[in-house]
Design goal:
Layout: H1 2-15, H2 21-47, H3 51-67, H4 71-93, H5 110-123, H6 142-154, H7 167-183, E1 191-195, H8 198-217, E2 223-227, H9 233-241, E3 244-248, H10 259-265, E4 270-276, H11 288-298, E5 301-306, E6 336-339, E7 352-356, H12 359-363, E8 367-369, E9 377-379, H13 388-425, E10 430-432, E11 440-445, H14 453-464, E12 469-471, E13 476-480, H15 483-486, H16 489-505, H17 513-521, H18 526-540, H19 544-547
Parallel strand pairs: 2-3, 2-4, 4-5, 5-6
Antiparallel strand pairs: 1-7, 6-7, 8-9, 10-11, 11-13, 12-13
Helix pairs in contact: 2-3, 4-18, 6-13, 7-13, 8-9, 13-16, 14-16, 14-17
Amino acid sequence: MRRLDASLKSLVNSMLVEYDPYSTVKLALVLMTASKLLKAAQKAWMHRADGLNGLYQWLLSSIAPLLKKLPMVKNQLRGEMDKLRTDLHKDITKDITVPCIKLPPSGQAESSLLELMKSRQQLDTQYWMPGKITGAIYHGDRDYMGWIGQIYGMFAFTNPLHMKLHPATRQMESEVIAMVLGMYNGPAGTCGAFTTGGTESILMAMKAYRDWGRAEKGITKPNVVCCTTAHAAFDKAGQFFGIEIRKAGFADDEQEMDMQQTRRLIDSNTVALVGSACQYPTGSVDDIPALSELALAYNIGLHVDCCLGGFLVPFMEKAGYRTKHTFDFRNAGVTTISCDPHKYGFAPKGASVLMFRSVELRHAMYSFATQWSGGIYATPTILGSRPGGVVAATWAAMMKHGEAGYIETTKRIVGATREIGEGLAALDGLKLVGRPEVCVVAFAGKAGSDINCYSLCDAIKQIGDWELGTLQNPAAIHLALTLPSSRNAAAFISDVKKALALLRSDPAKWSGGTAGLYGTLSKLPSAFIEESAKVFLDTMTECVAEAA
């Protein structure tokens, strides 16, 4: 061993005989950096579903932070962001009432405040009432929404954190969870938690898997495997909790999660898989039974994201429709499911349920501070104090509709979704992206049709005043059907047909707008796109009077 060490020492010294100590250290640093870059590039190659394009985007994103520090780039970026901020201010000020940026010297009369709030309520209802927007408002009947608001107000000051102080609120919360578990065929031992929305439910599920993996398997660098179509909340969970989010691609236009890629991405640090029922971007239900088999084979968790379709998919079979794949606890490998009553359950915003197959897994979601000077502190989810009003209103919404009511609304929404899907598939030059099997229709131009879907989106807006969503990777148009929009299915197909004719008559006219924006953004690395997102988020909370 000593002889080998001496030989290696002699060889290395002879190779570096012409290098001074500084050059030797510099060479070592260069080699170390090159090694790290190669390792990261290999990781990008292995874990990105889009191959060469993923590697290219990784390299571009790696260089972008350095480019942003160059004076020329910094000045150009500042100018573009100032322009974006100005455009956003114009958009948000068109409906503004008199700004109130300081507390009034004395309290205002309730009657005058009520009149002001009525006018502000009118501003917040004018855009969705015609039923021509994607998602956002799921019920739309003013009388029903007023009744829900009345229930909410009755419990607005209760707090489920103080369960002894508010026993009725605690009871309603537990009953909402139990009813949702029943909808998803939860076997004995299943349990859940009430959260503020799909994002919190997803965050809490991922936190549970991270802690479960550490406690049961000693995993300190956890990863979760999902599809590129999985909701962005999984990326947020990765950022918040230090989880690597690995993304499998999809095989065809139906955009089901690719099982071969999924299997390749699983390793000894994988704590969970993720499937969607249905996916937010394109509406397909992933192959949950196949994911279930993988989860059981590798002894890992499986989360099913039913946040969007939560109060549709459980009722589809009784409404006369079927999903391609089963999605609930009937699959033995499913360990958590997230479901949002505040969408198609027609509860007020701030209502989601996270379901667990076992109490033991739910324990991994909890947070404790047992040595705090204020006493023992324990909470099930992110929040400490929680709004009791939304709990009571969610319970009331579910009781009012009942199974029969949800079957009826499922018939209307799924029926309209499939009607639009069939109508768009029959139009020359268009193709469906994903499967319109639940509540989402996504579509784009066929290859060789020269139809830019972003240009088409702008034309549909002009023809019928539709506010649609736009997708990327791949480019497509997105419509999430709700009760208000479900009554406009035939009108939507007609408006798309007219928009196609308008687009074909003068393609150059529609090359700007959304098409121009996405054409530019698609060429930029994430670090530059994030600057635009920062401006947008800053503007959301900025008082216009302060910004003027």
